[in-house]
Amino acid sequence: MPTLQTKLPSLVNQLTAALLSSLSAPSNKKTACIMLITLLIRLKAAAAARKTYLEMRTGVITGLMRRIRFEGDISSYVGDLSVVWFTGIKHTADWYLGSFKDNESTSGKPSYFT
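and the corresponding structure tokens:
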């Protein structure tokens, strides 16, 4: 019977994959994203969490922009488009800063360079 020490790397990989899969769901709210990213950072998967989170938010914003219907009024369409775009960017940045609190996990470089 293999010991836990030998099983641990594969279990960590499975847990990381499951958490990344959960993070990629576009229906996640702020608290769910922060919790999932915090767990991934603890598993030393901050880079994968960052990439998955930003890809998910890109998909959400793109999907919301595609739902805007053009009904002939250009100024109304551009106004709706800008509200979706800038609100999406603001929320993405707020959630990102709430998730990646320390400089090391946000910048991708060790803190001794700052």
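(Above: one complete record from the training split.) DSSP finds five helices and no strands in the chain.
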